[in-house]
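Holo prediction. Input below; ligand is thymidine-5'-diphospho-beta-D-xylose.
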Amino acid sequence: MPTPFATYLVTGGAGFIGTNFIRHTLALRPQWRIICLDALTYAGNAANLDDLPARFPERYRFVHGSILDTKLLLKILTQEDIAGVIHFAAESHVDRSIHKPQTFIATNVNGTCQLLQVCQAVWEQNGKPDDFRFLHVSTDEVYGALGDTGYFTEQSAYAPNSPYSASKAASDHFVRAWHHTYGFPAVVTNCSNNYGPYQFPEKLIPLMIMNIQEKRALPVYGDGANIRDWLYVIDHCEALLTVLEKGAPGETYLIGGGAEKRNIEIVHLLCDLLDRLLARSGSRDLIRFVTDRPGHDYRYAIDAAKIHQQLGWQPRHRFEDAIEATVQWYLGHMDWVETIRSGEYRQWIETNYNLRDSK
Ligand code: NAD
Ligand code: TDX
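Structure of the complex:
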């Protein structure tokens, strides 16, 4: 019996962006059915999605498994009529890649290649349908670091500086090669720093929100002058849907928020915001400048003209509103935060921060 839905496979859907993508897309696209494949590493949380089978019994299915498991991939892709794949699954934290690069090579490089091979084989078996898409979700960090001026564009040269960005750059190259060599209908997006609900509290914004809330030290790497271009995760999810539906196979699209901030500005803003929301003062006194991240990229900034002009996407949310909504989400979900803070999380905090001297 053919289903009335188009089925999409989302890898890494129990992580930060994947969770937001699945929840937002099920609401926005009633004709979509989603299969989420996630290995549930420390960064994946099945509870993020556990209300969905009851709310969308015909339109959502969770599979616990890895993109490194070829047999499982083949089973899913041959049993289901997959209209497209949105590939989020990855190791995503730069500091962890500095401590333990091997898992980044395994998941981001080998995992992506494995997924490409199985998807290509099934796509060919099915007679190479024109409308199949493989969307590879990548990062602006593959382009290295900018100075005080200029922007990354789709023409920027690859110059990854961390083991994380090198592994993402390698995966981008494999996706590109799969299109060039086999005509496989893949599209690549490279996005700037995301923030919003469900982000694992190892990343700057949720880490600072939690530490401020608990009156703990706020570790700012180096002098805090590094710049990131921040994008609300829902805007990123909408950009991904746009690329999936309107983007041309073989193309790359850069996605950015146009909201450049120095790290110290972000930390100050969060201190002031939480002081206001919690009716207290003095959070800025918790700031500690600590030993810098090795090879720390100075600035990332995106020129998003291509996706804007060719596909009509631009961010809908103002940074000031979305960051306040994000803080409110964390304050309203302290139970979520507690479940995340397993032994593994505490161990990571010790590994990463105990080695850093205060300056
Ligand atoms: P995340 O670390 O929060 O989530 C990654 C998810 O992948 C987790 O659910 C994890 O369990 C899953 N996973 C890991 N290894 C797997 C495997 N072998 N098989 C199946 N699942 C596996 O990451 P995120 O921040 O949601 O990022 C998602 C993607 O977007 C990544 O590819 C990342 O490089 C990219 N990206 C992230 C940002 C950002 O600011 N967070 C910006 C640009 C691009
Ligand atoms: O404790 C901290 N103190 C600090 O000063 C942490 C965790 C970070 N920082 C700085 C380092 C960066 O300049 O804040 C900035 C942001 O750091 P992260 O949140 O670790 O993000 P970043 O390294 O910029 O990478 C992120 O954006 C691009 C994601 O982790 C990647 O997955 C994405 O590809």
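The chain has a mean pLDDT of 96. That is the main takeaway for now.
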